[in-house]
Description:
By secondary structure, the protein is an alpha+beta fold. The protein has one domain (about 5-155): Aminopeptidase, CATH 3.40.630. About 25% of the residues lie in helices and about 35% in strands. The protein is built from four helices and eight strands. Strands 1-2-3-4-5-6-8-7 form an eight-stranded mixed β-sheet. Strand 4 and strand 5 (about 75-80) form a beta hairpin. Helix 1 packs across helix 2 (about 35-45). The protein is globular and about 40 Å long. Bound molecules: coenzyme A. Coenzyme A (COA) binds next to strand 5, helix 3 and helix 4.
Amino acid sequence: MKLWLAPAGLHIEPARTQDADAITKLHAQGFYRGWSREEFAAYILDERTPIYVACDARRRVAGFAMIRHLGEDVELITIAVDKKWRKKGVGLALMRALFDDLLMSPAKRLILEVATDNAAAMRLYEKLGFKKVGERKGYYPRPDGTPATAIVMARDLG
Ligand SMILES: CC(C)(COP(=O)(O)OP(=O)(O)OC[C@H]1O[C@@H](n2cnc3c(N)ncnc32)[C@H](O)[C@@H]1OP(=O)(O)O)[C@@H](O)C(=O)NCCC(=O)NCCS
């Protein structure tokens, strides 16, 4: 059984179908454009798109991270922590759990995109050793109609 310890009595494990509602709500809280419960329920069942949840003993979900396997590359599709649980090390613990799990896979590199105006996420990734490998101008839609630039970052695994 896959299980990693996280701060404040939480633990991290692979998501189950029953987590789809909580994941959908958290994603909608963290991002301008959310995905539906059905989309997340399908991703949970698809081994190419593992989702990891940080939750308590009653399975109340405080955060999640989702990746997609692309051969030697793995992409971080999304990560979000509940507002109440932010700045307690949960995001860091989720990232470390997925690094650990990826040691058992053929993946050699983790890549991600982050908006230049997302200081919290940029710091989190820099802290974990990610380096900028590219830039995508006008990548993220924003409510005011001025799209944000994405930085592409990567980190070797293992
Ligand atoms: C980004 C996010 C997942 C971080 O989760 P978190 O659990 O709060 O992060 P952690 O507590 O593990 O913080 C780890 C490190 O990230 C950085 N960080 C986190 N929040 C930060 C903030 N508000 N401002 C600056 N740096 C921050 C810090 O370097 C921190 O380490 P430190 O506490 O030792 O200084 C969370 O802010 C979130 O869900 N944001 C909305 C969704 C999102 O933007 N996801 C990323 C998309 S690319």
